[in-house]
Design brief:
- The structure holds 2 protein chains of 2 kinds.
- By secondary structure, chain A is of the alpha+beta class.
- In chain A, 60% of the residues lie in helices and 13% in strands.
- In chain A, a hairpin with a 2-residue loop joins strand 2 (53-58) and strand 3.
- By secondary structure, chain B is an alpha+beta fold.
- Chain B has helices at residues 23-31, 33-36, 75-78, 132-153, 161-175, and strands at residues 6-9, 12-20, 52-56, 81-90, 94-99, 107-116, 119-127.
- In chain B, helix 4 crosses helix 5 (161-175).
- Chain B is globular and about 40 Å long.
- Classes of the chains: A alpha+beta, B alpha+beta.
Chain lengths: 111, 179
């Protein structure tokens, strides 16, 4: 998933966290980082493509903010993964609750 | 307010201290090398995200008592330097940096400052602490350092670092649950 590739980089995670605290112009993001301006631009591009941040123009400025689309995708992924485990654990619980089967009743499968 | 750190999540311990203001003065004790050197450790800090953070720990001389480092911590006399990286910086309210990157650690410390009348509430949260032993050491360490910070801001003379630390560590040994 593109979104996890985008978030695998610590600088990109920090950009997302920064924008989570409020929108910033491209220039203001650059000033806050000890990373070169071209590198920041490249990171913003990756984040935009992953729909984690969005940009709008205001006069001369490009203003970046969090894109709810990417966060919703992350949320959905977490929910799917959680519900998969919840179901598996429920199944395991039911299995363990069944009366024990003695080995001689079981037919052994040939390999 | 409880002076003891509280475990607020997996591998996460949080401390609170009510300190004399104004907030800019407390901020300078977090960020200025000389001032930070009076309670924690000197070292440069590039206050931009991903900027380098450097600490040089001299706990034996920190409080002017000229103590001997306990044998268990003898290694800190030869490995004084610790590095990290700024994760978030919003003067004068929020500062987060990674802790001990040069030791391969992956933990993260956040300082939050909030005005409370003429005082300032400092909340320190140390996240992603690996083991129980680390939690105990970090608990005793921050507790001792933060009390020295309060003493410096109140212009009181702090007690000797290591003697105080060992008492605190014993207390955290009792408080941090064994899982």
């Amino acid at each position: 998933m593109e979104i996890f590739h985008a978030l695998a980089d610590p600088t990109r995670r920090r950009i997302v966290e920064l924008l989570g605290r409020g929108e910033h112009t491209a220039g203001a993001i650059g000033e806050k980082f000890a990373v070169s301006a071209p590198a920041i631009s490249q990171h913003l591009k990756v984040l935009r493509e992953a729909q984690l941040v969005r940009v709008r123009a205001q006069g001369q400025h490009r203003i970046y903010s969090i894109d709810p689309a990417g966060l919703a995708e992350l949320d959905a992924w977490l929910q799917r993964t959680r519900s998969f485990w919840a179901k598996s654990l429920d199944a395991l619980e039911r299995e363990l609750a069944k009366p024990a089967v003695t080995p001689k009743n079981k037919t052994r499968r040939k390999r | 307010m409880n002076a003891y750190g509280v475990i607020v999540g997996p591998g996460t311990v949080r401390f609170e201290r009510l300190l004399p203001g104004p907030i800019e003065r407390v901020w300078s004790y977090l960020t200025d090398s000389e001032k930070r050197g009076t309670w924690l450790a000197k070292g440069n800090m590039d206050l931009r995200i991903d900027g380098n953070v450097e600490f040089e720990f001299c706990n034996s001389q920190l409080t002017g008592h000229d103590e001997t480092t306990p044998a268990k911590f003898a290694h800190v006399d030869t490995e004084k330097r610790m590095t990290g990286r700024v994760v978030a910086c919003e003067p004068p309210r929020l500062l987060t940096y990674t802790w001990g990157e040069n030791f391969g650690e992956n933990s993260e410390v956040t300082f939050e400052l909030a005005p409370r009348g003429d005082k300032v509430l400092l909340t320190l949260t140390h996240r992603r602490l690996g083991t129980r032993d680390t939690m105990v050491m970090v608990g005793g360490g921050w507790h001792t350092h933060l009390d020295i910070l309060a003493d410096r801001l109140e212009q009181r003379k702090p007690p000797a670092f290591w003697a105080t630390y060992l008492e605190r560590e014993a207390e955290y040994e009792k408080r941090v649950p064994t899982t």
